[in-house]
Amino acid sequence: MNKKEPSTKSFVLRIDTETMEAIEKWAADEFRSINGQLQWIISEALKKNGRIKATKKKGGD
What we know:
Number of strands: 0
Helix content: 40-55%
Structural class: mainly alpha
Oligomer: single chain
Largest sheet: none
Radius of gyration: 15 Å
């Protein structure tokens, strides 16, 4: 049986307290986990700067 590589990788991130508190609040405001919020922020930045393709949402959003 072939094992697939995981689609995500883990790493340690050092971040200052003020930034972390802002991310925690932002995540809570959008009902996301802190990890989910960081993934979203990074994804949006990569799309905005043309580093990855933006995916189209279904339903005309």
